[in-house]
Amino acid sequence: MADNKEEAFRKVYEANSKKIFHLCYGYTGDDDAANDLLQETFLKVWQNLHKFRNQALISTWIYRIAVNTCLTYLRSEKRQAKDELTPAIAETKREEFSEKNEQVALLYKCISKLEESERIIITLVLDEVPYPEIADVSGISEGNLRVKIHRIKQKLTELYNHYERL
Predict the structure, then answer these.
(1) 107 and 99 in contact (C-beta within 8 Å)?
(2) What's the CATH number for 95-165?
(3) H helices then E strands: how many in the chain?
(4) CA atoms of 130 and 128, how far apart (whole Å)
(5) Could you read off the pLDDT of 100-126 as tens digits, one per residue?
(6) DSSP run (H or E) holding 46
(7) Rounded to an integer, what distance in angstroms lies between the CA atom of residue 98 and that of residue 94?
(8) Domain ranges of the chain
(9) 3-class DSSP state for residue 65?
(10) Might you name a Gene Ontology BP term for this protein (predicted)?
(11) Which residues does 101 contact at the CB level (< 8 Å), separation at least 6?
(12) Model pTM?
């Protein structure tokens, strides 16, 4: 039985870890913190795998665990406002990145300026998670989700253009 659980967990981890890392990075803007939150998320998945009842997709269940883990992390650590934290991180990262990666770093900097719920949604969109699953994770209807995504994209475009002019 233990071997089956380990094999199932390995498959779940391989299928979901990249997307969960991106989600965590969207919250923190920091590789180390995102990796810590990724590990913490999958520790919780391992500990609770027996409780998963297939009432939703397992990836949706994992996203919910990751979102809650990230929110708990941000609240318990009483993190500085993203405005103070992210520019320094983005500046450090920018030195490491090629020009194309610089644009990605700027995109993540802009994402970090969004509200928590918007960060979750746009990160899932960027990871190409299907809309029904995003709606399930975020707790809103698919119709509202489409409107919200449109508004988030507009907001991101404005932020991106603002930073590109600087």
Answers:
(1) no
(2) 1.10.10.10
(3) 8, 0
(4) 6
(5) 567 777 777 788 888 878 888 888 888
(6) helix 31-48
(7) 8
(8) 1-93, 95-165
(9) helix
(10) DNA-templated transcription initiation
(11) none
(12) 0.59
